[in-house]
Structures are given as structure tokens and as C-alpha cells.
Amino acid sequence: MTSHWILGPGAIGRLLAHSFSSLATVTLIGRRSLPERQTLSTPEGEIQARLLKTRPVADLPFAANELPAFVHITTKAMAAEAALESIADYLPPTTPLVLWQNGYWAQPRITQAWPGPVLCATTTEGAYLTEGDEVVHAGRGHTFIGDLHHQHRSLTEALVQTLSTTGLTATAVNDIRARLWQKLAVNAAVNPLVALHGVRNGELRGAQYSGRVESVITEVAMILQAESIQSPNAGQGDAAWRALVWQVVDNTAGNKASMLQDVEAQRPTERGAILGPLIESAKHHGLPCEVLQALDAELAALEASYLSPH
């Protein structure tokens, strides 16, 4: 059986562990020890309990005889490089990595640094952890997988086949860079504002927030054009990006975005991975990004209010 290591036992990590467990040997790796009995609630309301192999990173020297065919890094974007560094000494440099981060920060950096294959995944699977450590698979979505340099199609297709066999819908693509930027554009228009104001996604339709959403979209559309990212759904310019963002807002109206969940839990947000690449690109291309910079500054101040020592 193929062996998968899943580094980062958050919601997506545990969903993958449950999904792969019937087909492959799975090791769920975190910073702390986890109970082997893990529970999943399916979108249909079924409760599934499984015994999963779990290890803290500190135990990995004892796992040298259990080397994986794939390592899935499912941490937050800002933690991905450090997470990989924590296990790199125990992996052959040819081990394929699969990156499941939001934004466009960890993906190019790890692709450049890691000598082996690096696949990137973007998913709309909905999952969250309950206070009781159960993972809830809240909604079925679609996962797209590819690599930034179009070098690993057969490996990508093999992983997609495995995911599809587990019941998760997945597709191998050649345009993963564009898809990552596209998701980044939507996240930039939605996540910071809902995190700052403590609202659900659908409330962005209100007059209090919609104008600022439109301002973000205007800046982002210019940046993505400069990055040669095509407008979504065969559309043109700002109008296509506006249509996509508002469609996502409507489709996820009741959702509590991950960035808002981070603020409520007083954790660092992914602002650097979501807003950082856009601001960096705008500066590189000489484009205005005052709206994005203002959002980043507001989020930084909000994080400092609960992360800084008092």
C-alpha cells in the first residue's frame, strides 16, 4: 500500500487522513501527541470513528522504516516552510510533497527549495474542527492539483486517482499557478473584511461593506492582469472578477471564513500569504495597492492587539 504522511493535523489534514486510511498507510504528524481514535462527521451527517496512526514530530527519528510515498503539508501558509524543515532530515530528497496552503507564498518558495517533486493543491472542500477535536466535513468540493513547472503530470494523475477513489473529487491541471492566483483574488476580497468586522461571508453584500469589496477587486484585477492571469470564466477584466467574488460570497453566505476563525481564536492570520503576494506584485509592476495595504495594516493592528504581550 502507498504510504502518506500528513503534516499538520488541522481540518483539511484530518479530512485527508480519514479519506486515505481505507486505501493507504497514513501517518498524521503534529507538534503534539494526538489521540489515535479520530472522528469524522460527513456532509450526510454520518459519524465515522477510525484508529489513525499519529505521531508528534519529535518521534519521527523512530519512523525511518515507514518512509512515505507522499508528504502532504496541510499547515497554514506561514508555517509550511518551518513544518517541512522539521521533518526534512527524515525524508529522502526525492520524496514528493503536496502543498495544501491558501495564498501564493509557500508554493513558489518550497517548489524552488525542495529537490524532489512539489505538487500544489487548491480545494473547495469544506471542513472544520470542533472543540471536541472532531473534524466536520461540512461540504463537498473540488480539488485541483498540478505543479508550477509542468514537470510531474504522471505523479499528479496518480494522486488524483487516489483522491478520487476515496470519494473526494479531484482533477489534474496544467494551470495550477493561475488557479492559485484566482483563489488568492477571492480570498483577498473576502477574508480580510470578514475577519476585521466579525461577519459571515454573505454580510459583505450589505452597503456597509460592498463598496470596499469592489475597491479590493479593482486593485486585484489590475495586479492579476500584470501577472498574465486570465480573467475567470472566460470573462473580461474587472467585471469577470467581480462576478466570481460575488458568486463565492453568495455560495458561502453562511460560512465563517478561516481568517475570521483565526481572529476569534486569537491566532496569527494568513494575511501575509493572501495579501502579501498581491502587494509585492503591485509594487513590482508599479501598480497602486492602497486598498490592499490598508487592509494589511488593519489586520496587523488587530493581530497585535491580541498577540502582543501586555
Automatic annotation (TrEMBL):
User: Which residue intervals define the domain Ketopantoate reductase N-terminal in the entry?
Assistant: 6-148
User: Its catalytic activity?
Assistant: (R)-pantoate + NADP(+) = 2-dehydropantoate + NADPH + H(+)
* Single GO MF annotation: 2-dehydropantoate 2-reductase activity
Name all Ketopantoate reductase C-terminal domain ranges: 175-301
Q: What is its EC number?
A: 1.1.1.169
- Pathway entry: Cofactor biosynthesis; (R)-pantothenate biosynthesis; (R)-pantoate from 3-methyl-2-oxobutanoate: step 2/2
Enzyme category, top tier: oxidoreductase
Q: Which InterPro entries match?
A: 6-PGluconate_DH-like_C_sf, 6PGD_dom2, ApbA, Ketopantoate_reductase, KPA_reductase, KPR_N, NAD(P)-bd_dom_sf
Q: Which UniProt keywords apply?
A: NADP, Oxidoreductase, Pantothenate biosynthesis
- Reported function: Catalyzes the NADPH-dependent reduction of ketopantoate into pantoic acid.
Family classification: Belongs to the ketopantoate reductase family.
Q: Which NCBIfam families does the record cross-reference, listed alphabetically?
A: apbA_panE
- What name does the UniProt record give this protein? 2-dehydropantoate 2-reductase
UniProt source species: Vreelandella janggokensis
